[in-house]
Amino acid sequence: MKIDHDNNFDLIRIMAASQVLVMHAGLPQVPDWVRYAVSRFPGVPIFFLISGFLVTWSYLSNNGGVGGYF
To answer: What's the pTM?
Structure first.
């Protein structure tokens, strides 16, 4: 099975997941300007929106129906 990654959805998802990680990890060495910039990025909604799109896209592009998708 060949997986083509000809989009940047994985990059957007890792940025969104990184935002959640930085905000919830409580790392003291993160500069205040980084915390400020990261707090303005809505990571959780973006992560779930992109993930939902990718799952739906995968389902719709499958020719085997529900059984073939799983």
So the answer is: 0.61
Q: Which residue has the tokens 């099975």?
A: 1
pLDDT-derived band at 39, boundaries 50, 70, 90: confident
Smallest CA-to-CA distance from 45 within 25, 12, 16, 18 is with 16
Q: Which two tokens stand for residue 40?
A: 């303005």
Q: Comparing 15 with 7, which gets the higher pLDDT?
A: 15
Whole-number Å distance between alpha carbons of 13 and 7: 12
User: Token pair for residue 56?
Assistant: 């739906």
Distance of alpha carbon 13 from its chain centroid, rounded?
2
